[in-house]
Amino acid sequence: MDIIKSEVELPGGSQGVFNAFVLLFIALIGFIIIGPLIGFVIGIPFYSQDLISLQNTLADPSSSPDGKTLLYFLQAGSTLGMVLVPLIYVKSKMHIPVKAFFANPLSIIGLGLAGIITFTFMGFNSLIIEWNANVNLPEFLSGFEQWAQEKEQMAAELTGFLATFDSNAQFIVALFIMAVFPAIAEEFVFRGLVQNRLSKGIGNAHWAIWISAALFSGIHMQFFGFFPRMFLGALFGYLYLWSGNLLIPIFAHFVNNAFTLCMIYFYSEEIVAYDIQNSDPPELPAVLLFTIITSGLIFYFRKHYQTINSKDGSMAKGV
Length: 319
Known about the structure:
This protein is mainly α and 319 residues long. It contains 10 helices and no strands.
């Protein structure tokens, strides 16, 4: 099912699939190259070190008083580039207005359901997280396994560093940089652009959702977290497909990121006793309960939007 409308007829088939990967490539250029440069330049007035010293800070951010500030600006710039670069392309070359991604009515009930579904989905996904984290690869993949473990350790250390806050103000800043901005950027790219173009190219919304989810998980370069992140991406994909409004998966993505960040902060402040980073997953009966609740909520979410669409007419078609 197509979700957004373009001012020109966009090709399907293999050309549509090709366009999806072109858009992803453009977004990654913005994320990896253009965005960080923007963030670095904007942050110059806030660094106490000279530019040469900042190069050493990039190699070992935790050893420098400017390390966290530098990473915050780079992260913010990356997400900004991830949105702006492909957005300029789709507006100028594909003639898709921004409002097309939010054309379908925004239901407050749907928004609330998306947030609750994301929360209960964590219970189900905890089982996948535990399994994926303990996967043992065959001997001939030992080199890849070692590389993947090192990447996982680096990601954990970076998250721990960025999620250690010196003040409430720093926590609020981190909430925007690590929860709000990534939710907007990643949903715009993977659901708004890639999923839509794959759906047009393949002609099957379900394949488009799962391929987009796999790409979404893959770019994080964390094999031992690949499958739970892919399932999460698929959840966001279905929320977008059924609602037809990109704000729904953006909000769900924000809830997922913000909840984790808040739990880390609350634990560090001894507000809660639960350590979300180092705790065992829920027992199987609890996982099954979360799975049943999530399934029921997803069913209700879909019926809710089927009712809305039947009243307002068919969903906007296009890209």
